[in-house]
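Hi everyone,

Forwarding the result from last night's run.
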Amino acid sequence: MDFKSKLINWYSINKRELPWRKTKNPYNIWLSEIILQQTQVKQGLPYYVAFTAKYPTIFDLAAASETEVLKLWQGLGYYSRARNLHATAKYIANELNGEFPNNYKDLLKLKGVGDYTASAISSIAFNEIAAVVDGNVYRVLARYFGIDTPINSTTGIKEFKKLATQLIDTKKPDVYNQAIMEFGALHCKPKNPNCTNCPFETSCVALQKNSVETLPVKLNKTKVTTKYFNFLVCIDSENRILFEKRTHKGIWQNLYQFPLIESEKSLSSEEFQLLNIDNSLLKTLKFDYSLYNESDIVHKLSHQHLYTKFWIIEVNKLPQTAIPLDSITNYPTPVLISDFINHFSFK
């Protein structure tokens, strides 16, 4: 039995029952693939269920506001996925009459759709012979064939794509692609893979050479920067609060937050008092303040570590731009802000 046959046989016995595997509808498959980018199935599944319940068709998703989409996405992270999801839904609904492109080349033109996602949708929904290469596939191929070319190098990306294309089952590309991804997710895991009970036990190069733990190889290109955030939680006597939309590009675009001051280091209460608060609204107001958290709340993103303090600002009356305190949970927020809202005792 060859590689692809063993893989598909393993899949037929061990695959998980997942809702997007019960349909050929490209909308559902596209939605699942966008949600599962950089997200594990157990985390993404509830979001998929929520999105398909609220937006059962591409037209429903297109008709929603971006704020509604971001709110439903809240907590999943990498919010550019949600913005691209909504933009693509509107494009397909309005420009393509709701019809998804049915091939890899045209799918690749959609916003938020790259090589992997286009391959997954075209093969699973339309049975096109297009090999997927995601983190799971890199790991399975690197170990089975003993390949030590870095998977995030230009050479590695081309090498693994070429190999994946050579291996794909041309009669069952949809099943094969799902099988190799599932095998990497459940069996050939990053840590503690099940090598003692593996269908490839006698043919896996990494197992024979005792290099399972060192493959795949990945170049460390991520440079992590440290930032110091000071959020101003401004509340007035009428139970209104300042809440603003992050409109500039970067992290959390179009999500909501409290007014923010970035500093060069973590501020003490005394240093905050001497700070020139560059906020036109607060400059005209008399206010009292207190520090919510003495120790920084550290929020780690892929490229940034945010050391955060929340300063409670109490004023008599805020301007008309303030929102009622009891409406704050209606707005989409990053996890850092939503966690504070959930834990802080607003009065």
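The radius of gyration is 24 Å.

Cheers,
N.
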